[in-house]
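[job 4471] stage=fold_predict status=RUNNING
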Amino acid sequence: GIRLATTQDDARYALVCEDVADLVLSNLDIPGQSGAATALLLRQTQDVWLNGCRQRGAIETFLKLEGNASQRIHFGPGDLGLARRLVEAASDVPAGAWSAPTESGR
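[job 4471] inference complete, writing structure tokens
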């Protein structure tokens, strides 16, 4: 798994992926950061699997999704309950581009 940490609060995205296909993020562990609005940014991404991800601090949105080519973004089980909103999809993201996790995934 991947555990992200900083020595000081950092409000930037924990991870940004652009023009990526076949991305698997398993056991991604993200701390809460003061002032951070969103943990991940995926832009023009396809065939993404987010499994076992954990948001350890309160945050407004876990995933920001952008781009008209974004599609097949899937959530597996994880611990994302501290995010007020799971996904914020930009207006250019096709309907149905992402699928919500099962009940045990949120």
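[job 4471] summary: The chain has a mean pLDDT of 87.
[job 4471] exit 0
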